[in-house]
Amino acid sequence: MSAPSGSPPTRSAVRTLAFGLALPLVAGAMCVFAFAPYYAWPVAIVALAALFFAWERSGSPRQAALSGFAFGLGYFLAGVSWIFVSLHEFGSMPAILAAAATFLFCAWLAVFPAAAGWLAAKAAKVPGPRRLGTAAAAFVAMEWLRGWHFTGFPWLELGTSQAPASPLAGFAPYLGSYGVSLAVAVAAALLAMLVSSRVWSRARWAPLGGLAALFLIGALASLIEWTRPAGPPVSIGLLQGNVAQEMKWREEVRTRTLVEYRRMIFETRARIVVVPETALPAFLDQLPPDYLQSLLEHGREQGKEILLGTVEREFRGDEFSYYNSVVRLAAGKMASYRKRHLVPFGEFIPPGFRWVLAVLKIPLSDFSRGDARQPPLEAAGIPFGVAICYEDLFGAEVIDALPAARILLNVSNDAWFGRSFAADQHLQASQMRALESGRWMVRATNTGATAAIDERGRVVSRLAPFTAGTLVEQVTPREGRTPYSVWGNIPALLLAAALAFSARAPRL
Questions:
Q1: Could you tell me the sign of the dihedral formed by the alpha carbons of 148, 150, 154, 157, in that order?
Q2: Per 3-state DSSP, what percentage of the chain is helix, strand, and coil (rounded to 5)?
Q3: Is 122 a catalytic residue?
Q4: Which residue in the list 143, 339, 436, 473 is annotated as catalytic?
Q5: Is the pLDDT reported for residue 90 higher than 80?
Q6: Residues contacting 149, CB < 8 A, separation 6+
Q7: What is the pLDDT of residues 163-200, one digit of tens each?
Q8: In 463-501, where do the E strands start and end?
Q9: Catalytic residue among 304, 347, 389, 473
Q10: Active site (annotated) includes residue 89
């Protein structure tokens, strides 16, 4: 018999609302503190455990899906709210429309943890350890799908939150970021199991022992060095011009920008000088001839090689093709790396969405893709594995340059996201790539975070954000291969599948 209309909600309804929606929503939002700039990595484990706790008590797959959606909504609204800044402040989208677009985008991303909850409850109808094990596997599977679907958006992979200090980051050279995400999910499942056990019995000692073993194995795994120095350190100068995004393409600013970057290049005392993504507000072939010539002559006289973030264009048929590139300026023939993983709506417009250009005023939003396989870009005789902008979020693509590449390089322009968490979150993704590959990662950005990261994912040095300056660091080239650089994401996905299978297997 149903409660009379207008009667207060039942205790069961209140508990469902609190544990099924409010708890996951808050837990998801709290995850932002697990990532840079806070680096409070235990928060990710506790927050995911709260979600699994809600899933373990879900009475149906639908209820579990709603809990997962609430978690995802809190997670992404807090974690990628900087999308609003990009759309409104720099894309000239009206505030209301930008807020709606940001919310809808985050709601779409929240579908992935919602699907994981549905799968966990559907596969293990009876609450308990089996559902928790399935939940861990399903969460990682959906995270991987998010990083692949519609060209992929792997921003804020849960495993990245563990870089570089968590013991669980020790799994990165073996299993990559998704493998670390699986370790986080297993730790969260064990924690949820521990909290669910009401008395100190075997049901509590087992997950406690599992947690201790998981962290111990990760810590021990981090002690093994898979790569080794491949020569003496080389001095690399990383430029940060700090040109405001809204001013960058204005005619009255162009000359000043060109002059300032040339001055920074001339004054940098380093063997290799790196200029950020699309730093110069002109196509490479439209730069004044004497400008490029002055850079080449300076490099030849001073023994420098310049890696320049720029826009190349080629005339094909009856139209131009544009490429977001890093070009090596040195004696002899110029070489370049062309960005191959473009940002939807930012660098290319998907079919059927040309109308977006009428709303977003983003310059150069229709780039062409570079070749899927490109050799490392050499400078000073050292092969560099190059990633432009958010390409370094895709671990399986970064390792394409290995084992040839001795140093990893990222050039970026996170000025699009203002004074938000985006630049620091991007920096942490680069830290994970260094851990996965066992190589240094150097980053040159327009406004931050310009930094040098060693092979253990530690930030050795960085420039203050939103300041103009040059960071010079002695970087050691490294050779050798980590297991992840050989096998990519396959082992992590197989382990997730094995975990799901074992959770479903009948007890002996």
A1: negative
A2: 50, 15, 30
A3: no
A4: 339
A5: no
A6: none
A7: 999 999 999 999 999 999 999 999 999 999 988 776 55
A8: 469-475, 478-479
A9: 389
A10: no
Q: What percent of the chain has pLDDT over 90?
A: 72
Tokens encoding 158? 């849960």
Cα 234 from Cα 442, distance rounded (Å): 12
Q: Which residue has the tokens 């002695």?
A: 474
Taking CA atoms, 281 is separated from 34, 266, 411, in Å, by 36, 19, 15
Dist. CA 50–CA 185, nearest whole Å: 11
Q: Given 277, 305, 347, 397, which residue is catalytic? A: 277
Q: How confident is the model at residue 161 (pLDDT cuts 50, 70, 90)?
A: very high
Please determine, for residue 55, whether its predicted confidence score (pLDDT) is greater than 90: yes
Give the rounded distance of the alpha carbon of 9 from its chain centre.
43
pLDDT tens digits for range 349-377: 665 555 555 555 555 557 889 999 999 99
Instruction: Determine whether 277 is an active site residue.
Output: yes
The residue among 463, 305, 310 whose CA lies nearest residue 388 is 310
Nearest to 456 by CA among 436, 435, 473, 433: 435
The Cα 289–Cα 387 span in angstroms is 28
